[in-house]
Amino acid sequence: MIYETIISTIDTNGKPHVTPFGVQKKDNLYVIAPFKPSTTLENIMSTQCAVMNLTDDVRVFAGAIVHQQVYDLLPATKLQGFRLATTLAHHELQLVEVLEDAERPHLLMQSIYQETHQPFAGFNRAQAAVIELAVLASRLSRLPQEKILSERAYLQIAIDKTAGERELQAWQWLVEKIDNYYAEQTGLNQA
Ligand SMILES: Cc1cc2nc3c(=O)[nH]c(=O)nc-3n(C[C@H](O)[C@H](O)[C@H](O)COP(=O)(O)O)c2cc1C
Prior knowledge:
5 helices, 6-stranded antiparallel β-barrel, 8 strands
């Protein structure tokens, strides 16, 4: 099973970096698999730790892809680093093993501290739709345009039926990013 999370790391100067990662639970370890190059990978390799945030605020997922910061950070409890202030829960992770790979190494991490801050509010289809579109929007150069636009049209149904304000904001950012990307591509082709 893979959980879509927000991973926050710091560099050697303490500067935070916050971005979405699908995290796999394997036995008692959490596995993060960043494609190279990755700031998250560099930060974890140099600090040996990360914070995994479990949040239903999908603006944080979309915001990372469109470079919009919508969150505040609070210091982690046991590790040097930060968690999202409004996260439902967080785990503080320590690196225990690296499975090297030229393209996508696997970082095996142990949770040394976890805390729940708010209860899970239930599933929401628009939140799932935003996560799906955020994944597509983070792979614009690697996926065919037709696939991205047809999947977006399908995901729009859940947005229209079930979104709240946060989901609508996140969706709008992603739609603009995708449309701008293809407009630029068309411009380049015509130039
Ligand atoms: C829901 C979601 C899950 C993602 N999971 C991964 C992942 O497992 N590995 C990865 O390399 N990028 C993943 N991404 C893309 C990264 O968040 C994004 O490309 C990011 O910039 C990673 O590079 P960075 O560490 O330099 O920030 C995911 C994006 C989304 C929206």
